[in-house]
Amino acid sequence: MMRERAVTAACLLLVLALPGQADWTSIGPEGGQIYSGAVTVGAAPELFVGSINTNFPLLRSTDRGASWFLTGGTLANYPQQLAAHPTNPDIMYGVASSQFYRTTNRGATWSAFSLGSNTNGNDIAINPHNPQVIYVPCYRWDGSAWRMVSAKSTNGGVNWTVTQLDTFASTTIYSAAVDPVDTNVVYMGCYAASMTSVYKSTDRGATWTKHDFPTNAYYVYSLLVDPSNRNVFAGTLYGVYRSTDLGQTWTRQSTNNYNYRLVFAPSDSNYMFSASYSYVYRSTDRGLTWHISSSGIQGTNIRTVLVDPTEPGAVYCGSTAGMFKSTNYGTSWQAVNNGIVIGRIPTLAVNPHEPATVWAEFADNDLFKTTDNGATWAPQSTPLSCGNICGIGFDPADPQRIWMLEGSG
Q: For residue 30, is it within any domain?
């Protein structure tokens, strides 16, 4: 097929240095799918982000997103979530499939620890007062069905014990949070028995109690506890919900879909942000109301949003087009992709009338064009109804006419 005849296996557009040699030089475009991320602690925090693209690259920035480089260490699968140690900037964590990963040298190397057989983790929640205690919400196959379980480590992720939350089968569990005021309290977000629910433990994960939402919002992708008043926020498939009674009851605060990650701005906790697939949503009243705040962001599948505790107003998000940064609490955004060259390019074409002009499609429908043999690239607009582009052709008689084949017809 045309897509298969294109450069499906490539992660980047590459140029052969000399005929007959196997050395390639990356010429972009910069960017690529960012799936998860974390910010380290300290006076000069560093940014780490992970991708679902080929070889699951992990990238690091030591200059607040101005430049990025590969960490050197990699994971065996793409990181569902990354997390930073709350007091030690050298230590980072990741969870990918059935493995929990830890680095003690800022990503140079990673050690893998099993969460248990037939167990897949989705999030990381660390006790801020005792970082040796870590929780991971997991699916576990028990031979007949997938069950919701909590994996807990008391030695920094080396060893794990698993506790089943409930007896329901064919359920989903994506998120976890530790109450920063009372760390005996742990929350996990689930879709169980056809109902959106948050499970709560008051004994450090030994036992769990189910609390249903008033309406079905399906999956609970993210959980966040406000340290000032212990209000709990849940980012779901259908809106952001808030609990003011420690998870007993829930009220819907927004209607935006796919709330993959929720964060407070440390410099002003009136600001909250949600990574919401096509947009970043912002609240300026501590989660009561929410509005789109995505000016300047390109791409889709926004799954991570990060804040820098040492730079007031600084917010980061990742999409299919790479990383973006705001310095004004999300009012406007700029791409910060210097060094991020991890995009998958399933389709590219050289203009036969202008050989220096090349069109390339990033996966997930991000279209780029270069007119100088790849020295610079510019994003191109596509029709709103356009699906993934799987072929690009040029009219042999009209150099201004371009044909594209896309997945929506």
A: no
Q: At 371, list the tokens.
A: 């007119």
Query: For the segment 19-40, what is each residue's pLDDT rounded down to a tens digit?
Result: 555 677 778 888 889 999 999 9
Q: Do 17 and 99 belong together in one domain? A: no
Contact 116, 158 (CB under 8 A): no
Q: Would residue 387 count as lying in a domain?
A: yes
Residue at 340 is within a domain: no
Q: Which residues contact 185 (CB under 8 A, 6 or more apart)?
A: 178, 179, 200, 201, 202, 246
Distance CA 52, CA 37 (A): 12
Q: Which of 335, 368, 388 is the last residue of a domain?
A: 335
Query: Are residues 216 and 281 located together in one domain of the fold?
Result: yes
pLDDT digits (tens, 9 = 90+) for 128-184: 999 999 999 999 999 999 999 999 999 999 999 999 999 888 789 999 999 999 999
Give pTM, 2 decimals. 0.89
Same domain assignment for residues 326 and 365: no
Same domain assignment for residues 329 and 378: no
User: How far is the C-alpha of 266 from the C-alpha of 313, rounded, in Å?
Assistant: 9
Tell me, yes or no, whether 286 and 264 share the same domain: yes
Whole-angstrom distance, CA of residue 127 vs CA of residue 338 = 34
Chain-centre distance for alpha carbon 182: 28
The number of folded domains in the chain is 2
User: Contact at 8 Å (CB) between 363 and 33?
Assistant: yes
Q: CATH code at 237?
A: 2.130.10.10
Tell me the average pLDDT of the chain: 90
Question: Does residue 245 sit within a domain?
Answer: yes
β-pairing verdict for 251-252 and 261-264? unpaired
- Is the distance from CB of 54 to CB of 32 less than 8 angstroms? no
- Structural domain harbouring 15: 2-25+345-406
pLDDT of residue 246: 98
252: tokens are 């819907």
Q: What is the residue whose two structure tokens read 């790479």?
A: 322
Among the candidates 306, 335, 364, a domain finishes at 335
